[in-house]
TrEMBL record:
InterPro entries: Surf1/Shy1 (IPR002994). The chain crosses the membrane at residues 23-41, 228-249. One of its GO terms (cellular component) is plasma membrane. It is a multi-pass membrane protein. PROSITE patterns: SURF1. This is SURF1-like protein. Keywords: Cell membrane, Membrane, Transmembrane, Transmembrane helix. Its main location: membrane. The keyword Membrane applies. Belongs to the SURF1 family. It holds the Pfam family SURF1.
């Protein structure tokens, strides 16, 4: 009598493969990675919503310059366009002209000056855009008029704080030409700068001097308290966390499919 044949073993199921120690270990690693991604997404969400937005019209209240920022620091977004009050004296010989300045659509020039801040603990200066003129001749006349009053007498100014526009190389045809309002570029041409501290932003004066025209400097737009770019980044981290689990599942399924193929090939053999 012939003994009954032993039933052929069945291939493992996907669930059996994924419950093996190797794949459970990889699942634990995915949990750690997904946790890190979730933390990064939460951090981005925390930065996306400004829980303490500035009050409407806050930039229109005139405050002392020293209450906004110290010298040498960058102007943050909340303080961009803030109206400030400052007093000091003009440094003679440092009234410089910046070209390519538009005022209500008309191209012209800004006349600028170095205002040495009064009562500062160390020598400190602020670059001031004093006023706008239509042509170089008017700019030269304004510089002459301002030089006559740069006698060390105290000057009180109000205006808006604006971020440094950055330094640009001058045109080859006129190496002395300034085309951007940059305190860093002006500093390289100012006098008496030994040990000088300089404010990084500049001031657009509310009241023009020296026969110039007031610079058009409207109030900044009041932005939303929600930063949608940060929300987008947070969504990206959530996608990355989900992808970590998908990758674990996909790799496990590929391993299971290979085992099934090997089992079928062994059976045919």
């Amino acid at each position: 009598m012939t003994a009954p044949a032993t039933p052929a073993p069945f291939p493992p199921t996907l669930r059996e493969v994924l419950l093996r120690p190797r794949w459970l270990g990889l699942l634990g690693l995915c949990l750690v990675v997904a946790g890190v991604f979730a933390w990064l997404g939460q951090w981005q969400l925390g930065r996306a919503v400004d829980t303490d937005p500035p009050e409407p019209g806050a930039t229109e209240r005139v405050v002392p310059l020293e209450d906004v920022l110290p010298p040498g620091t960058y102007l943050d977004a909340r303080s961009e366009g803030q109206k400030v009050a400052v007093h000091g004296h003009w440094v003679p010989g440092d009234f410089l002209v910046v070209a390519s300045r538009f005022n209500d659509g008309a191209e012209g020039y800004w006349v600028t000056g170095q205002l040495r801040i009064a009562d500062a603990e160390t020598p400190t200066s602020l670059a001031v855009a004093i006023g706008w003129v239509a042509d170089e001749k008017a700019a030269a006349s304004a510089v002459d008029a301002l030089e006559k009053h740069a006698d060390g007498s105290d000057v009180e100014l109000t205006g808006r704080l604006i971020t440094d526009e950055g330094v640009a190389p001058p045109p080859r045809t006129d190496p002395q030409r300034l085309g951007r309002m940059s305190p860093a570029a002006l500093l390289s041409r100012w006098h008496d700068v030994e040990g000088l501290s300089v404010y990084r932003p500049f001031l657009t004066a509310a009241e023009p001097l020296g026969g110039t025209v007031a610079i058009s400097s409207p109030a900044p737009d009041e932005g939303t308290s929600v930063n949608w770019l940060n929300i987008f980044y947070a969504a990206e981290w959530a996608v990355f966390a989900g992808f970590a689990f998908y990758l674990w599942y996909r790799l496990g399924k590929d391993a299971w499919e290979r085992e099934v193929e090997e089992f079928e090939e062994a059976g045919r053999g």
